[in-house]
Amino acid sequence: QKEVEQNSGPLSVPEGAIASLNCTYSDRVSQSFFWYRQYSGKSPELIMSIYSNGDKEDGRFTAQLNKASQYVSLLIRDSQPSDSATYLCAVNQGTASKLTFGTGTRLQVTL
Amino acid sequence: GAGVSQSPRYKVAKRGQDVALRCDPISGHVSLFWYQQALGQGPEFLTYFQNEAQLDKSGLPSDRFFAERPEGSVSTLKIQRTQQEDSAVYLCASSLAGGTSGSQHFGDGTRLSIL
Lengths: 111, 115
Fold this sequence. Notes:
The complex is a heterodimer.
Chain A: E1 4-5, E2 11-14, E3 19-25, E4 32-38, E5 45-50, E6 54-58, E7 61-66, E8 71-76, E9 85-92, E10 99-101, E11 105-110
Parallel strand pairs in A: 2-11
Antiparallel strand pairs in A: 1-3, 3-8, 4-5, 4-9, 6-7, 7-8, 9-10, 9-11
Chain B: E1 5-7, E2 10-13, E3 19-24, E4 31-37, E5 44-50, E6 53-56, E7 65-68, E8 75-79, E9 88-95, E10 105-106, E11 110-114
Parallel strand pairs in B: 2-11
Antiparallel strand pairs in B: 1-3, 3-8, 4-5, 4-9, 5-6, 7-8, 9-10, 9-11
């Protein structure tokens, strides 16, 4: 079992719809959770961080964390073609400072 | 500079050659990380520095890989006797603080191709 799991996709949503991206993690002592967006050929760009259970909203993005279920998600409202990218879920495990990444979910927003 | 700067952006080397990749973190950032990203995969951790101290090198795949950050700022990742499996994008990230809460900001990476 991988430490951080994501569906590789592609996840296809029409423009204006809500895109829902999911991630599960195996280490119960994980403390910090991050979503990165990566355009093809570019570096990962931090878009959301979340540290406690519940929802965190920033513009069109909402991160949701459920530590009991070891589950973190990212919702993108009013999806735009420019949101088409790979979304990487990353986890800080226990006391380690390093990030453990999932393989990423490729999102396609169609016109 | 405003962001993490990496050089070169692209590096082509013949198998067996040594290469050196440079990372200049965001000014004032204490922590510096190196990751390796293969095509279609998420970044994989290589090593971590807090200031000049290398606190975690558990991700380095072999003793051919060596990293340093002698003055607590710029870091160099060196790969000796390169092999084809070393071909990947090498990403550097920095964060303001150490520990588990610091958000990491990535550079544009060095795309290494071993022929």
